[in-house]
């Protein structure tokens, strides 16, 4: 029997007891009229009276409070189930406006009527996400830099000042504290199965949210403050999230074609048979695929992400022989979450074996890092679980990636007798494309993207409007042609030295600074696969400086494009003064060497980044000395940005600055002290 079949719960015994039994032990009944007034206002004093505190330090006694609040939750649940849709809207809609997600909360009333376990769990995940975001907005009425973690937010003085400490203590019994029910974390991290979440706790959080809205209204009236909602995160450049590169179609069109009803039906069969799926979690998987079919893309991803975490945790604990970490940790220890499963080394300093069991370890790990962790990636799990995304407008393009990735894992961990499904015409392309995945949001990948964007900008220079060359040559007082030619000669020498470390089909010994060949070379170098998984600190520090250099080069290019266009127009209209005309011609002269200089720097960046991981993993490597050199190049490009800006226009100084920089670069190149030299 597969381990996924034998696991009956992912909740440790104390956590299971707290969530599934503790709140049901007290058999007293609670009259709803004692905690809810006739006009629908929460009687907070009657609720907070059920809180219990330790005699030693007056901190919350969570177990006793859960037991004491159990009948209150039951009463609230029965009351909400007795309301019609119209009654719930009339009585409670206005109290949810402060969340900026009124419809999400009203939907939970419908869920409570149906009491379908998976829907209750989904409703609770959405409710906690939206509530956290709203509480963060309230926090900002009194403080700056809203805490990232829900537990820190709920424990803040700022929220206690607005709502009262007793009220916040009640809320922490249900969410935000590892000593309480901690419903938000056990659901969002994939520990709780649908049947393990009592619906009365969902009802109670709905009740508490309405009560918080009532308290907040009073506070705002008294203080004359205005609650401002932070804008939602919007996914821009969705094409960057197109995961599987394109010998079929781009991912949006590809997955729109392949994630059709037939594919999803096969996925449903895989879910039932794959060892990646814990059988207790099967309803979540079916609900996620159903939500995708029904175009409820946020719901689909909210349901899938915790299950991906649960499935990977099963693999992680099995391959690393630590089955105890499959369960929720106690309050004194950390959960085993995505963050822990993606590290290179375990706590005992042994190598994490999870990547080894994945058929395409780089693909799976890089995908997870890209979509969940990298700061410049979409960070879907964080943003969804912390309420930063508008659930109503969640893009299908993002859901495509998560569903597609999930299908590949289901296939990878299906039995051999599932061969016919794995080889199905709509599944196999997904698997084939998955094996080609490369990180999109690792700093190295972002650096490559920056280089190509800068390349496209410099590519525009030859098409810039300019005065005839003979006018430049005939202008009196314009010096520097000899110096320009000398600089170009030095650049040619350096590039010629570097050619032995570059693809030979893109080089030319006759014309090393041929822009067409350099562009082709940059594209080819940026396409070289570089290890991005588990990048050590030296790699990240080097890449950070290279990215800054690339950014400055792009800024120089933008200055040249803007300045050349403006000055040409002024030249044609004869609105330039004598000194301005001379400076404009100096600019045109400087462009002749600036273009090769920027090509050289971009080549250095790309050749170095191709070598960075292998060299920095070697020992010894004095990367601090190397960083010193890179920072001198960065200083040069920063000065270049200043000198080429419309405010400065210091073109003679630009030439002098460039000459000094080239001398330093050639010295380092001659001494074979760059990464490309060390990598060979």
Q: Secondary-structure blueprint of this entry?
A:
Elements: H1 3-6, H2 13-20, H3 32-35, H4 44-48, H5 62-82, H6 85-92, H7 102-114, H8 117-139, H9 150-154, H10 157-163, H11 165-174, H12 183-188, H13 199-223, H14 251-258, H15 261-273, H16 282-293, H17 297-319, H18 338-341, H19 354-357, H20 361-373, H21 380-385, H22 396-412, H23 419-422, H24 428-434, H25 443-458, H26 469-474, H27 481-498, H28 515-526, H29 537-572, H30 578-616, H31 623-643, H32 651-670, H33 675-678
Helix pairs in contact: 5-13, 7-8, 7-13, 8-13, 10-11, 14-22, 15-16, 16-17, 17-22, 25-28, 25-29, 25-30, 27-30, 27-32, 28-30, 29-30, 29-31, 30-32, 31-32
Give a verbal description of the structure.
There is one protein chain. With 680 residues, this protein is an all-alpha fold. The chain contains 33 helices and no strands. It starts with a helix and ends with a helix. About 2% of the residues have low confidence.
Compact summary:
The chain has helices at residues 3-6, 13-20, 32-35, 44-48, 62-82, 85-92, 102-114, 117-139, 150-154, 157-163, 165-174, 183-188, 199-223, 251-258, 261-273, 282-293, 297-319, 338-341, 354-357, 361-373, 380-385, 396-412, 419-422, 428-434, 443-458, 469-474, 481-498, 515-526, 537-572, 578-616, 623-643, 651-670, 675-678.
């Amino acid at each position: 029997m597969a381990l996924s079949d034998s696991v009956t719960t992912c909740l440790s015994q104390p956590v299971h007891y707290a969530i599934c039994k503790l709140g049901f032990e007290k058999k007293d009944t609670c009259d709803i009229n004692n905690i809810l007034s006739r006009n629908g206002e929460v009687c907070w004093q009657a609720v907070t009276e059920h809180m219990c505190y330790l005699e030693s330090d007056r901190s919350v006694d969570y177990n006793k409070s859960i037991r004491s609040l159990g009948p209150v939750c039951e009463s609230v649940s029965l009351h909400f189930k007795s309301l019609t849709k119209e009654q719930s809207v009339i009585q409670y809609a206005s109290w949810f406006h402060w969340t900026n997600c009124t419809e999400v909360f009203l939907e939970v009333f419908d869920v409570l009527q149906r009491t379908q376990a998976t829907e209750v769990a989904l409703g609770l995940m959405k409710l906690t996400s939206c509530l956290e975001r709203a509480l963060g907005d309230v926090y900002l009425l009194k403080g700056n830099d809203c805490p990232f973690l829900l537990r820190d937010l709920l424990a803040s003085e700022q929220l206690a000042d607005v709502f009262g400490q007793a009220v916040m203590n009640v809320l922490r019994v249900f969410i935000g504290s590892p000593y309480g029910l901690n419903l938000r974390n056990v659901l969002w991290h994939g520990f709780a199965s649908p049947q393990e979440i009592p619906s009365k706790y969902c009802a109670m959080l709905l009740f508490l949210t309405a009560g918080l809205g009532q308290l907040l209204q009073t506070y705002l009236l008294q203080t004359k403050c205005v609650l401002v909602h932070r804008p939602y995160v919007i996914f821009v450049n969705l094409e960057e999230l197109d995961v599987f590169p394109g010998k079929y179609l781009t991912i949006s069109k590809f997955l729109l074609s392949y994630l059709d009803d037939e594919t999803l039906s096969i996925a449903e069969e895989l879910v039932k048979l794959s060892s990646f799926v814990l059988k207790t979690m099967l309803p979540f998987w079916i609900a996620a695929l159903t939500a995708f079919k029904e175009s409820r893309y946020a719901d689909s991803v909210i349901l899938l992400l915790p299950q991906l975490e649960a499935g990977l945790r099963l693999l992680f604990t099995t391959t690393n022989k630590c089955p105890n970490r499959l369960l929720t940790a106690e309050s004194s220890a950390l959960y085993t979450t995505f963050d822990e499963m993606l590290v290179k080394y375990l706590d005992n300093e042994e190598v994490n074996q999870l990547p080894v069991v994945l058929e395409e370890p780089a693909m799976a790990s890089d995908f997870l890092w890209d979509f969940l962790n990298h700061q410049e990636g979409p960070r879907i799990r964080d943003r969804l679980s912390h309420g930063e995304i508008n659930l109503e407008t969640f893009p299908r393009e993002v859901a495509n990636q998560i569903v597609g990735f999930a299908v590949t894992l289901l296939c990878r961990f299906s039995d051999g007798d599932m061969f016919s499904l794995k080889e199905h015409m709509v599944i196999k392309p997904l698997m084939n494309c998955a094996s080609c995945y490369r990180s999109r949001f690792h700093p190295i990948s972002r650096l490559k993207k920056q280089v190509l964007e800068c390349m496209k900008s410099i590519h525009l220079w030859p098409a810039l409007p300019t005065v005839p060359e003979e006018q430049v040559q005939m202008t009196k007082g314009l010096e520097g042609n000899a110096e320009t030619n000398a600089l170009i000669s030095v650049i040619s020498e350096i590039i010629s030295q570097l050619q032995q470390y570059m693809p030979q089909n893109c080089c030319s010994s006759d014309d090393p600074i041929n822009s067409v060949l350099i562009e082709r070379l940059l594209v080819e170098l940026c396409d070289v696969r570089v290890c991005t998984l588990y990048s050590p600190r030296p790699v990240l520090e080097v890449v950070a400086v290279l990215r800054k250099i690339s950014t400055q080069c792009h800024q120089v290019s933008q200055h040249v494009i803007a300045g050349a266009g403006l000055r040409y127009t002024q030249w044609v209209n004869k609105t330039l003064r004598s000194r301005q005309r001379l400076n404009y011609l100096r600019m045109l002269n400087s462009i002749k060497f600036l273009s090769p200089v920027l090509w050289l720097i971009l080549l250095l960046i790309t050749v170095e980044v191709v070598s960075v991981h292998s060299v920095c993993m070697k020992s010894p490597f004095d990367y601090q000395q190397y960083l010193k050199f890179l920072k001198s190049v960065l200083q040069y490009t920063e000065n270049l940005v200043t000198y080429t800006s419309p405010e400065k226009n210091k073109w003679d100084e630009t030439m002098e600055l460039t000459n000094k920089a080239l001398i330093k670069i050639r010295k380092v190149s001659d001494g074979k002290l760059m990464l490309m030299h060390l990598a060979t």
